[in-house]
Amino acid sequence: MPTFFVNQARVDIAASVPADTPLLWILRDNLNLTGTKYGCGIAQCGACTVHLDGKPARSCVVPLSAIKTGVEVTTIEGLQTREAKAVQAAWEKLDVPQCGYCQSGQVMSAAALLAQKKSPTDADIDAAMAGNVCRCATYVRIRAAIKEAAGAVVKAGGSGARELQLAHGDAVKPSVSGDDSRAVLA
Ligand code: FES
Ligand code: FES
Questions:
Q1: Minimal-distance CA residue to ligand 1 atom 3
Q2: How far apart are CA 46 and CA 61, in angstroms?
Q3: Count of alpha carbons within 13 Å of 42, Cβ hemisphere only?
Q4: pLDDT tens for residues 94-117?
Q5: I need a labelling partner for 179 at 20 to 30 A (CA). Which of 47, 64, 114, 145 fits?
Q6: Which atom of ligand 1 is nearest to the CA of 44?
Q7: What whole-number distance in Å separates Cα of residue 23 and Cα of residue 104?
């Protein structure tokens, strides 16, 4: 029974949940964290991007069996770092989204980039965001928003990446049961 954290809340997975269940199903169908989107299901679009221990990952192709005990999963609902808040503010300021479907994945990738590089170049941005597809072609505004967010973080004085994060285990989230699993797979 793997135990990991989703947005700092502990999640226990019942042994009866199939090991090949994608993390995306657990997030959306069992934990009702529907900000993470399903697009392609084959790691090609980035709509399902979450962070695993701070690094971007495509949750549609991460099976439960690949999630080690204690791993921190962060979804768009749980982003609390200074970089993430700066990204979200820049997205709003520059009115980045059109239909919005891809945008939570875009924000997750952008926040992970800024956590790694305070002042990313165009090449850094292109490399980090290459796997996030936007059918509305908001790419120009995405790049501008990342630069805007990077400037805001630098101006505010440093990364402070984890300063707003809470301690583990304060709130214990619902266990994911075999019954839930069947609902996912139905
Ligand atoms: S739904 Fe996961 S990358 Fe497209
Ligand atoms: S805003 Fe519509 S797909 Fe990106």
A1: 43
A2: 11
A3: 1
A4: 999 999 999 999 999 999 999 999
A5: 47
A6: 3
A7: 16
